[in-house]
Amino acid sequence: MVEPIRLNSLASEVFDRVVDAITSGEFEPGEKLSESNLARELGISRGPIREALQRLEGKLVQRVPRVGVRVIEFGADELRQLFYLREAMEGMAARLAAENVSDDWLAEVEGMLGRHGQSIRDSHSYRQKSTDEDFHFAIARASGCANIERLLLSEVYYQLRIHRLKSSTRPGRAEEALAEHRAIFDRLRARDPDGAEAAMRAHIRSARESTLSLL
Amino acid sequence: MVEPIRLNSLASEVFDRVVDAITSGEFEPGEKLSESNLARELGISRGPIREALQRLEGKLVQRVPRVGVRVIEFGADELRQLFYLREAMEGMAARLAAENVSDDWLAEVEGMLGRHGQSIRDSHSYRQKSTDEDFHFAIARASGCANIERLLLSEVYYQLRIHRLKSSTRPGRAEEALAEHRAIFDRLRARDPDGAEAAMRAHIRSARESTLSLL
DNA sequence: TGGCTGTCCTCTGTCAACAGTTTGCGATCA
DNA sequence: TGATCGCAAACTGTTGACAGAGGACAGCCA
After folding, report:
1. pLDDT (tens digit per residue) in B99-124
2. Residue A194: how many CB atoms within 10 A of its CB?
């Protein structure tokens, strides 16, 4: 079988690069992103740059008409509101997932949780490396609700990554979070929608408290 | 005080016009929107058109790379998922609003509900004319959560309008909805977050059932 | 007759350039 | 000395043009 030729548009390429640059801290919050400069640095014209920056608007950057685009700034208020949104959407995702999950999915996620436990015992941190390993993303996928999956990815998780860049987690929080994940998983395996939503919302409230108490 | 000069960008103008055209039925679901054609018809270049269409991506249109943009098509599945998202976000909005609302806000919304009641007695329909008169939008505003307000507006309400274009409501649904709105309002006035969220979610589930049963 | 192929036209993705606006800096004046 | 004004540079919003890809249609071959 022949490999299909991957013809990413320049705009998508720029989009990915800017997301990486922002979520890795290369571009700092509040920093101005000039279309002309980016175009010069990347060696392309301003069109694709404009397109990529516009796709990021409201997610990772803010635009001021006739002035330009800056990396979003993140205060305690914004962070709290982000957790509210997350609680609402992920709670619903967990509810829907509880109605949908297959035995295969449960087995896979159980393995993931086992690896997470091992990782914590090794390093006492709980940083997910890839989205495939992300428990929350797995539930969003399993919800079968394309809207929720898309919005969580594009509106919530990107912004969360910005915050995680410059904040540490409370000692012991990793173990707590894993225990809460196991509680959610337990309700998913029991196919208990109410319980799954309640467990997920409790988990996210707990993460919110833990995060905000450190500011 | 001098009125600030309103200098809308062409892209915003096009955005508004395309939203109107789609939500009013001038552009039908599935119809292809050609950048070149729109540019010719509106007498401007393709840049602002591209920008406007891109802002609508995922909301009212879908883009296929190298092919173009079509008006989003709306099946029963998509509609159900839209109601799930709505239930999650508006439920949370009602909860937050119950913690935030001022007496002034309550008085204003009580007046709005009174007008809605009158409108139903007159015409037996429950079509909101403007967003200012929209009960749900008022709650989203009152939540004080900018994220939720923005996403409800841009992701949910636009799509709902498409659906309402070509679907009738069950006889008697208007009265039901108003009664449910009053129940939500009652919990808001009592500053009861749990009750407000529960009432809102019950209302949206009820709307979902009523809507889907007609397909 | 049915499917494949080549051609033409239109459209999207990208680029380079122009006009008007914002911003920063230096000069001017009280 | 401090604030204001004017100018120049840089940037955004917009335009028109070009290259390559997709789609329609007619002609060709089995």
Report:
1. 999 999 999 999 999 988 888 888 75
2. 10
Chain A residues whose CB is inside 8 A of the B85 CB are 89, 92, 145, 147-148, 151
CA nearest to A59 within chain B = B147
Domains by residue range for chain B, with CATH = 10-71 (1.10.10.10), 76-212 (1.20.120.530)
Kindly report, residue by residue over A105-117, the tens digit of the pLDDT.
999 999 999 988 8
A149, two tokens: 């999956």
**pLDDT (tens digit per residue) in B5-16:** 556 899 999 999
Q: Is the CB of B44 under 7 A from strand D?
A: yes
What does the alpha-carbon distance between residue B129 and residue B164 come to, in Å, rounded to a whole number? 13
Q: Report the amino acid identity of residue A98.
A: A
| Candidate from A81, A96, A150 with C-beta closest to B147 | A81
Residue with tokens 């001038």: B26
Q: Give φ, ψ of A205 to 5 degrees.
A: -60, -40
Yes or no: say if A197 and A92 are a contact pair by the CB < 8 Å rule.
yes
pLDDT of residue A127 exceeding 80, the answer is no
CA atoms within 13 A on the CB side of A185: 20
* Both tokens assigned to A160: 């969360």
Give the distance, in angstroms, between residue B11 CA and nucleotide D9 C1'.
Answer: 27
Q: What is the CA radius of gyration of chain B?
A: 19
Long-range contacts of A27-35 (CB under 8 A, 24+ apart): A27/A71, A28/A71, A29/A71, A29/A72, A29/A73, A29/A74, A29/A162, A30/A70, A30/A71, A30/A73, A31/A70, A31/A71, A32/A68, A32/A69, A32/A70, A33/A61, A33/A68, A33/A69, A33/A70, A33/A71, A34/A68, A35/A68, A35/A69
Distances (CA, A) of B151 to A44, B85, B146: 32, 10, 8
